[in-house]
């Protein structure tokens, strides 16, 4: 006994919706990373460099070829102070 084709329509809809949401998520990630592939396996060095790029250019993926830091960069120290308990 065969399966009626009407039973396959919901499965087609489900598979299509998974494909649409996957493509949408990929597009949003690509768009939010300044039209570059999303980064993966980031370590501490990568996070520090992303913070530096954010302070220089305003985007975590942007880079600048200027030899001098922008105005105001000398006071935006990235070092975090640790709280001491006395």
What does this structure look like?
This protein has two helices and no strands. The protein is mainly alpha-helical. It has a domain of 57 residues. The termini are far apart.
Looking at the structure, what is the overall shape?
elongated
User: What is the mean pLDDT?
Assistant: 83
Question: Would you identify the regions where 5 or more consecutive residues have pLDDT less than 50?
Answer: none
In whole angstroms, the N-to-C terminal distance is: 80 Å
The description of the largest β-sheet is: none
Secondary-structure class: mainly alpha
Total helical segments:
2
Element-level helix/strand string: HH
The rounded Rg comes to: 23 Å
Query: Helix amount, in percent?
Result: 40-55%
> In what range is the share of β-strand residues?
under 5%
Number of strands: 0
Keywords: Electron transport, Membrane, Mitochondrion, Mitochondrion inner membrane, Respiratory chain, Transmembrane, Transmembrane helix, Transport
InterPro entries: NADH_Ub_cplx-1_asu_su-1
Pfam families: MWFE
Membrane topology: Single-pass membrane protein
């Amino acid at each position: 006994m065969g399966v009626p084709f009407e039973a396959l329509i919901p499965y087609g809809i489900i598979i299509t919706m998974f494909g649409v949401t996957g493509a949408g998520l990929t597009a949003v990630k690509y768009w939010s990373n300044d039209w570059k592939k999303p980064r993966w396996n980031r370590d501490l060095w990568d996070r520090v460099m992303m913070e530096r790029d954010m302070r220089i250019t305003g985007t975590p993926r942007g880079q600048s070829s200027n030899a001098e830091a922008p105005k105001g960069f000398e006071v935006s120290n990235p070092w975090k102070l640790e709280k001491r308990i006395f």
